[in-house]
Amino acid sequence: MLSTILLPLVTIAGRIQDDFNCTYVVTSGALAGNVVYSPLATSCTDTLPAESCEVLFKGSSEGPVVPDSIDSSRPVNCYSFQNGPIIENQKKMSIMSCPSYCGYCCQTKAFQCANPNPDNLDCHSITPQACMDPEQKPMLAKNCPAKCGLCDYHPEGVEPTDGPAPNPNSSNENKGNGSGEKKNCKYAPDKAKDCKVWHSRGFCQNSHYTTEYKKKYCSTTCKICI
């Protein structure tokens, strides 16, 4: 997760005045010395439609966060009320519903994992621009996922298992395995949006993933009874 920047405001130009999450200090060029929003601040998708985010969080003259701009400021309603302190519940609501609009993408689940920190790569030195580079994404997702917000990114389209290794002696009776529907069986709604893509790549039939894991994310697509 990008940590909060705590620097004396008298040394920093720009319009960001309160919540410094998902920001960085420009160190070179015409904007040197300014605190601006990182490209990672808006690198996710809002849960709510844009018009809903605007109704909920837009201030009198504020708009959505714009990365790398000294003229952009986070709408106060994303984290507080006018001239008030940061309100954590208000902030949590904006992170859950409109993280891109409010510039809080770096606070979302995609950043909530650990970096492997390989010896040959310093994750702290990775720039936001590198994180956004499509050619570098697979490598950074493997080595520096928390730095780049790639905890949920998997090049093959299938998440790695977070459960125990499958038991070869366990029975799949009435549980389903993606090969067909069972009688008197109810399926839970799919939790993952890419279940159909995963299924086409063999996810439902792959014994590397436990039945419970498949049921948790893709019960309907994999035809696994609840």
From TrEMBL:
It comes from the Eukaryota. Residues 160-185 are annotated as: Disordered. Coiled coil: none annotated. Pfam families: ShK (PF01549). Residues 113-151, 185-225 form the ShKT domain. Transmembrane segments: none annotated. This is ShKT domain-containing protein. It comes from Diploscapter pachys.
